[in-house]
Write a structure and sequence with these properties.
This protein is mainly alpha-helical and 497 residues long. Helix content is 63%, strand content 3%. It folds into 2 domains: 125 residues; 328 residues, Neurolysin, domain 3. A 3-stranded mixed beta sheet has the order 1-3-2. Strand 2 and strand 3 form a beta hairpin. The longest helix is centred in the N-terminal third of the chain and has 29 residues. The chain is globular, with a radius of gyration of 23 Å. The protein starts with 5 loop residues before the first helix and ends with a helix. The mean pLDDT is 96.
Length: 497
């Protein structure tokens, strides 16, 4: 006889209802970024803000506190216990914020992001700051309220929304160590690569041909087009819901690697979403474990797999088929192209060796912003100094390719940036485990057999969703919690081995 769990069942029913609302909000958000005409922004922003307020009202219903307490006393199985843990976490975070602030955040970020789309190409930092002040004000208020509720520092309270359990003390430990050896590695690799011949592809590369190539590579990576699609946006992203995954990329006719590698990156996100356990959908325990784990999937696809020598052997004939044969598309040269280390302005276009420097810079700036140590006017000078210090790149006066390049700040996603490099470290750890279990992994990839990668990720990460804490998930998958040493070994092996 099945045990009766009325309080838990009521909470699960509420979660299912919120899931349906979130489905609509996610698709509206994708449309806002990818398809909506400019004049629709104000009305869409108001509609999404109203929906966000409604969802917040449901999450903070006073009766939920009693349901949570009673559910904790009911005879739940292990899965239900994990789900209750996640429901309680969502309820706790929601109750820290008033509905008016939730609505204000939605409106402020919609306004700022929409204006950012034209301000970025116009190099208009002064215009951006006008809207950004309100986004920052709301972000600081959220941080203060969440800090009071969780006992964490203001920045940590925001980061905890994306990476539960992670603190800036731990991020500082990891990033400070990274900062010690990364510049030397960059210098070594650049000196070594300066002696190599690397043929640049000859364009132009028509957008339609790039789109077809990207979709063909997504098919190679087993993306389910019956449950998702690829579109164009100002900043590549993965959105939608597991049943309807929306990916975007962006194109330039003078080069194809930006769109191709960006698409491979987003496909990693998309496959994680498409393979979350269907029987759990609608419950918080079915959600992705954290954003570092999510980024570990995109970087497993883009960097670990997509930039591997074996995978470039698969890509080479596909490039020739879409753009015509040329010497740059020879497998060995293509491998040199995708592993070229060259410090530059743009984070999303950065190679995997210089990429962490971009993240360290943003993390330092946004933490100081949230903690009230600096103001928006201080960002350009800090950005210029940080880029020169970390990468030797001069960004003075270049706001388009400087602090305006990412969508995260206009969208108020403070606390997210550390997840990218933490994700790169997890991805290296996953592939170190894969190679131990499959010593022939690289030869199988070169032969077109990607099943060992997909099967392992599906079993160890995708299907586990939020069943375990991040540390537990890592130990179960790889035998240890996050170990940054795997990332260093990966970079040294690929670029100096």
């Amino acid at each position: 006889m099945t045990a009766k769990t009325p309080a838990y069942d009521a909470l699960a029913a509420l979660s299912q209802r919120l899931h349906h609302f979130d489905h609509l909000r996610a698709i509206a958000g994708w449309d806002q970024a990818a398809m909506m005409p400019p004049k629709g922004n104000d009305a869409r922003a108001a509609a999404v803000a109203e929906l966000s307020a409604l969802m917040h009202r449901l999450r903070t219903d006073p009766s939920t506190a009693g349901e949570l307490e009673r559910a904790g006393q009911e005879p739940l199985d292990d899965f239900q216990r994990a789900n209750l843990r996640e429901i309680h976490r969502e309820w706790r975070l929601a109750n820290a914020l008033p509905e008016s602030l939730v609505q204000a955040r939605s409106l402020a970020t919609a306004r700022c992001e929409h204006a950012w789309r034209t301000q970025r190409p116009a190099n208009d930092w002064a215009g951006f700051v006008v809207n950004f002040r309100e986004v920052l004000r709301v972000g600081r208020e959220e941080a203060s309220l969440l800090s009071q509720q969780t006992g964490l520092s203001k920045y940590d309270a925001l980061m905890d929304r994306y990476e539960p359990g992670m603190t800036s003390v731990e991020v500082d430990r990891v990033f400070d160590d990274l900062r010690q050896w990364l510049p030397g590695l960059i210098a070594q690799v650049r000196e070594r690569q300066s002696r190599e011949t690397c043929i640049e592809p000859t364009g132009p590369f028509p957008v339609e041909q790039q789109r077809r190539l990207c979709e063909a590579v997504m098919q190679l990576l087993d993306f389910d087009f019956d449950g998702g699609r690829l579109d164009t946006s100002a900043h590549p992203f993965s959105g939608g819901v597991p049943e309807d995954v929306r990916l975007t990329t962006r194109y330039r006719e003078d080069g194809f690697l930006q769109s191709l590698m960006g698409t491979i990156h987003e496909t990693g996100h998309g496959r994680y979403e498409q393979n979350r356990p269907r029987s759990w959908l609608g419950q918080p325990v079915s959600s992705a474990r954290s954003m570092a784990i999510h980024e570990s999937q995109s970087l497993s696809f883009e960097m670990q797999l997509g930039c591997s020598r074996g995978f470039t052997q698969l890509l080479a004939p596909m490039l020739a088929a879409h753009f015509g044969a040329q010497p740059a598309f020879a497998p060995d040269n293509l491998y040199r192209l995708v592993t070229r280390v060259n410090p530059g302005f743009i984070r999303v276009d950065a190679d995997e060796v210089t990429y962490p420097a971009h993240v360290i810079l943003r993390y330092r700036i946004e933490r100081a912003l949230i903690e009230g140590e600096i103001e928006p006017e201080d960002i350009p000078a800090l950005w210029d100094a940080g880029m020169m210090d970390l990468l030797g790149v001069d960004t003075r006066g270049n706001f388009t390719n400087g602090p305006l390049q990412d969508v995260h700040w206009p969208e108020g996603l403070f606390g997210y940036f550390p997840c990218y490099t933490l994700g790169a470290m997890y991805a290296a750890q996953w592939f170190a485990t894969l190679r131990r279990q499959h010593p022939d992994l690289d030869s199988r990839i070169a032969a077109g057999d990607l099943s060992p990668v997909f099967d392992w990720l599906r079993e160890q990460v995708w299907q586990q969703a939020s069943r375990w804490t991040t540390a537990e998930l890592s130990v179960r998958a790889s035998g240890e919690p996050l170990n940054p040493l795997h990332f260093r070994r990966h970079l040294e092996s690929r670029y100096l081995g």
